[in-house]
Amino acid sequence: MSLLLLLAVPLAGVVAVSCDPRRARRLVWLALAALAHLVLLGFAWGGRLRDSRVLWLGFDPLGGLVLTLVSVVFLAVAGHSAVYLQRRVPRGGRAYEACLLGFLTSASALCLTDHFGVLWVAMEATTLATAPLIYDPGDRHSIEAVWKYLVICSVGIALALLGTFLLALAQGANAPDLLRSSLVAARALEPMWFKAAFVFLFIGYGTKVGLVPMHTWLPDAHGEAPSPISALLSGALLNLAFLAILRVVQVARAAGQQRLLAPVLIGFGLGSVLVATALLLRQRNYKRMLAYSSVEHMGILTVGIGLGQAAGFGALLHMLGAALAKALLFLVAGNVLIEYRSKRIGDVTGLLERLPISGALLVAGFFVLAGAPPFPLFFSELAILRGAIQAGAPWVAAGLVLLQLVAFIGLGVRIVSMVQGGSAPGESRANESALLLASPVVLLGAALALGLGLIPSLQNVLLAAAATLGGSAP
Amino acid sequence: MIPLSEALLLLVLLGDFAVLGASRLTFTIRITAFQGFLLGMLPLAIHHPWTGQGFLLASGTMVVKGLVLPNVLRWAMREAAVRREMEPSLGPLSSVAAGLVALGLGLALGRHLPALEPTLPRLLVATSLTTVMCGFLVLTTRRKAMTQVVGYLLLENGVYLFGMTLAGRVPLLVEMGVLLDLLVGVFIMGLVVFHMNRELESLDSARLAELHD
After folding, report:
1. How far is A139 from chain B (nearest CA, A)?
2. 3-class state of residue B88 by DSSP
3. Three-class HEC string of A207-265
4. What is the pTM of this model?
5. For an interface test with A, which of B69, B134, B192, B212 has the most A Cβ atoms less than 10 Å from its Cβ?
6. The complex's ipTM?
7. Do A158 and B166 touch (CB under 8 A)?
8. Chain A interface, best mutation among B112, B142, B154, B188, by max A CB count within 10 A
9. What is the residue extent of each domain of chain A?
10. For residues A268 and A258, what is the distance between their CA atoms, to the nearest angstrom?
11. B181 lies within 8 A of chain A by CB
12. B50-65 per-position pLDDT tens digit
């Protein structure tokens, strides 16, 4: 069996849902493809899937980590989508399921390929596959959101293509094959071209990560998309874009360009945390508030990778934990939206009375995100702070702690106001469908398993992936 | 005598300025199509001897950038009944002046970057960077959604031009993937423009300003 199966299975799913006129059966196809993808990934971790020459596919710890995260989030999103599609008026067409599976196909290519050109093509394909999903509600707000998303991300990714060409020039005139393995092995890159390549790749892919000041599409897209899609964007798409930046960092580390990396990564990362925290405090819409929290966490990841050492390890763990927490919170936000029919924080009170399980999950998700022990973000944030001290930058640690505290209080106050208080008279306790709760519970379980160290050899995989990024054991 | 490749590049530059100074949307779509044809011809003018892969890429570029994309845009314009004026927030004269600044920057940058292979035309990097900057200018200073797509195409043409520095060394599969992405991307943009018009009865993207903090 070859790694190509990880692309072939979701692609076969695209064909199946496109041809199948029956809605219920399309959902079965979607669930089957998502489950098969996760099972195949298990085989890939066991070394049972061969590398493939087609698309230069290979399995490495870093790509494997991100793809596994994407696959888990995807499964949860697929489950929640079943309810979304049932309630949608008119009942959902095939485009939704086909685009979802198209996204999973391109995510597999993006995580597994060794070729920077294929990486680019796959990244643009994720933008194109998610655009119709964001637009699915079809109202004027979702049009505005999808337009910003398409234009800003397409321009960003066009700049990343320029960066990819520059990277080939940096590799030299003899054999610019743009393979990561040969770029890492070469060690000697033309520094002038490489600097230009790094700038364009960072700005380009950074646009899709949602780093400030290229983040402007993000709150609109997350706020207006159907909730399962917001969860997919926050839990999967942003991390795929971050993986693209990590691939560039791997090459830069091998080429001895660390001094170029740290100021750019730490600068953009801290800037993103600062601006996102400030804007988070101003939000009245809970989905937009969660979106800014995503920008904040992507900023923390970027700082962690810029610091290296223990922080590099911490950033990878943080990526997993924050992605699970954000996907969980967006799915629960979807449950809240179904019940209250409003995205305004002020319109939602007494959640614990009206939707007790969703309310409890919202609070639990907040604690995962806030880094309460035993959740993974507690350990990852400690590692990032230790990395900052190791790197001789205690002011970075101080800044992060302060901003995190402000974001914690800001988010906490708003979430408490949502879950507490009595519900208005005449509105009794609503029925919570099991299907709406299953996905968030699975994500919460995954986050708990990460934090408690229940996942076998996770530590070793994280260390191996972090080592290629200048990270080390905390 | 100017070599053919340099002449083609000069025509691309001329196209940039034509878009900046234009007042009609259909005209700018025609210009990006013309640039698409030039981009298809360029690798044939630069790289001798011709190879099968080179031919495939050249014809693929001409078909997608020169024929399919402009027709998708024309279809969206017709179906959505887009008015033809550009409605720039920066007038044609100022736009062209800004384009000249971009050209100066492009030439200066082209001079400062490390030398490329001697067989490549000298204007290549400068033309590419100027086209990218002009595309960015059109994207940011035109208010209509459809004109922004034209700006994006211009920018993409510039990036594609830069790829000529490596023509033949990027695998065909990847090049075709890039073209396919562009094609699907513009198709989806066309669809969104179509729906936008039905929803808003105007394609003024400046009216798309209800989402903010």
Report:
1. 8
2. strand
3. HHHCCCCCCCHHHHHHHHCCHHHHHHHHHHHHHHHHHHHHHHHHHHHHCCCHHHHHHHH
4. 0.95
5. B192
6. 0.92
7. no
8. B188
9. 263-474
10. 16
11. yes
12. 888 888 888 999 999 9
